[in-house]
Amino acid sequence: MSIPYDAIAKVPTFTLTSTDVTEGCELANPQLSTLFGSGGDDVSPQLSWEGFPAETKSFVVTLYDPDAPTTAGFWHWAVADIPVSCTSLPTNAGDKEGAALPTGSFPLKNDGGVTQFVGAAPPQGHGKHAYHFAVHAVDVETLGLDKDKASPSFLGFNLHFHTLARAVMTCYYEAKAE
Q: Between the CA of residue 111 and those of 36, 53, 108, what are the distances in Å?
């Protein structure tokens, strides 16, 4: 399966697992959005990763919906500069405070204009959307992004030059037309 991240750079993969979501699953209420009216909780899932290249110096975690009705998809979550010593994020690490994120890392404003995790919220009747959770193994300790100004798209541009490997888990959600 081709994934949108392949446009950044085709790279080797490693293992991504979660206690909250699985490859190919339909997202449940915790991972749906309350901010955008899907009746969910905007809770980021627990994520763990292993098998990344030994040269890895940091990680980036993203959640992207390429099926959103825009020309650019929709970035739901992006966390940069996760230290290489961190190989998991707990459930709800993407809350408003970001207190469970590892020291040195930071969330970027998503396409909803907030720095917290925003769950799935496809328009009713728009069809099934894919949600790509990704962990990017990066060859530098920091991407040098301005945490107050950088967008997830600019993050993606920088990942083009620094991604060693990427692990992706794809889940789905559809808001049926009433």
A: 12, 30, 10
pTM of the model: 0.95
Q: What is the dihedral of CA 156, 95, 147, 162, to 10 degrees?
A: -30
* β partners of residue 173: 129
Query: How many Å apart are CA 175 and CA 178, to the nearest integer?
Result: 9
Q: How far apart are CA 10 and CA 162, in angstroms?
A: 12
Burial tier of 4 (Cβ tally within 10 Å: 0-12, 13-18, 19+): middle
What is residue 157's DSSP assignment?
H
Q: What is the Cα–Cα distance from 76 to 63, expressed in whole angstroms?
A: 5
Tens digits of per-residue pLDDT, 44-84?
A: 999 999 999 999 999 999 999 999 998 889 999 999 999 99
Residue 107 near residue 24 (C-beta atoms within 8 A): no
Give pLDDT tens digits for 79-120. Answer: 999 999 999 999 999 999 999 999 999 999 999 999 999 999
